[in-house]
UniProtKB/TrEMBL annotation:
Belongs to the VirD4/TraG family. SUPFAM superfamilies: P-loop containing nucleoside triphosphate hydrolases. It is a multi-pass membrane protein. This is Protein VirD4. It comes from Skermanella aerolata. GO terms for cellular component: plasma membrane. The keyword Transferase does not apply. It comes from the Bacteria.
Amino acid sequence: MIWMRWAALPALLLGVWTLVASWVTLWGIGTLDAAGWPTWQWWGYLVATMPNADIQAAVNGWLMIGAGVGSFAVVMLSYRILRDAKGLFGLDERPLHGASKFASRKEGEKAGLIYSKTPLPDCLILGKTSGPFGWAVRYLCLPGVEHVMLFAKTGSGKGISYVIPNAFNYGDSLVVLDVKGENYRATAAHRKRRLGQEIYLFSPLAEDGRTHCWNPLGDIDVSDPSYISKLQRRAFNIFPEVQGREKFWQDGARTGFLGISVLIAETPGMDLNPSTVFRFFTRGDSLAVLTRMIEERRAAGNPYSQTCIDLISDYLSGTDEVVKGMRKHVTTTMGLWFNPKIAAATAKSDFDLRQLRRKKMTVYVAVMPSDIEQLGTLLRLFFLQLFEANTDVMPEMDKTIRYRCHVLLDEFTSVPVMRAIAKATGFARGFWMHFSFVVQSKNQVREEYKGQGEASLLENVGAEIIFGTDDPTLCKEASERAGFDTVETVSRSTPRFLSIMRAKEQTETAAPIKRALLLPQEVARLRTDQELMFRAAVPPFLLNRLRWFEDGHFMRLQGRPPELPVVTYRIDRDDGTVQLPAGG
């Protein structure tokens, strides 16, 4: 029906123009009363010949005036029609239940995404577009330093479709939480040989002992005036703030850990690493050893710092039961360092996390699924320290910072809650640091990070990717975010008997109804080669997933990974120097 209105509009405007121009012309030449209601008279005077030249000139003059006034009236009427009658003529008519569609290339580019024939090393690859008969396929790339969150259940192919392709492609520094070690085996050779990066694998529980080492306290330098502040930050990372009944013991354990760490840092010849600190809490004669060390330094005229003595005094000032409780709290939290493999792998540092933005390097943190819970404290400590080491100074204030750092966190929620990272995703980009959070479902994130930066974590991602999922909450949310269409449904009413012979009694009624662009069950049943991608201010994207071993740009990049050092250790025998506590 709208096209019929548009067809009638020129006739309406011409009629209005003729009426106004005729009225003005008749009034001007003084024949309005004689002519009656103006109709088409302007056209009549236009072709008529007047008796003499003076009358002809006067008529021509009023014809011009009438045409001008008529044109002004038509312009004003057209403006009102276009401004106030958009629904009548189908301009910007809003569908009753809204309209939705998948994003086009133009909309994607307007939202800051890049469509490229080849993967771009300064971008994250989100997926691929489809083309007719496989032609005109493009990689959809996210430039800059924006975060990505991928929702994919176990076994859905998140490694082959997102993690490994981006580990192959990303050109600046990269840190990967590498569950099962498959990312290192697939991409390390390419990143070393073709991208020219330094490659490190931190795998503290590797069966063959092949791993680089990383000491969480290795960057502490006692000649730096801020060394106590740095140690205090490490203490908070290991013993984070808690509430309730555990707060007393947690705070005491943190103070004890900090005091012992400062003492070791100020003692020449002692290695400052978690294992050394931990041993002071496990040996029964630690109080006697601490007392002896402090008295020897006092006697030598080179005492420990007052802060060190105050911390140790505060730790030891409680009753025997309280001190024993705090020691037990430390050994329970740091029990991981009873393992000689862990102690050896964290005794020194083969790489410096502070250099990630200053030179191109890749660090793989490899862990087997069965070891994730056991290594939780160490993994949390690693990534928190990684974050702190690279958000200390802005790039514009330090010209040695030349590269971005991307952190690819596969199975993100398997690591104990990292509140600092969750709350800081909004400003981390300013430090040229961005994350890919790979999780199984959004509920998982909400449960783990409830009250711990959940909102900041979920609201500051530049792209959200969903693989086929059986999480009903996520399916429903994705369906609602994709939006709704207004579609027309036809209802038919016919007689029950002999309807073919009773045509006059048959009726059809058309009515608009709401239909989701993607129903929840359609989200759950996405093909195994498809994915949904959401980005702010643009419709959803329906993309194809990559399979790196089938993709022409990646399938030949795998090679033999670099050789790794072997970390050896020995289990020392009791030498009798440790005094066991006396029995009660």
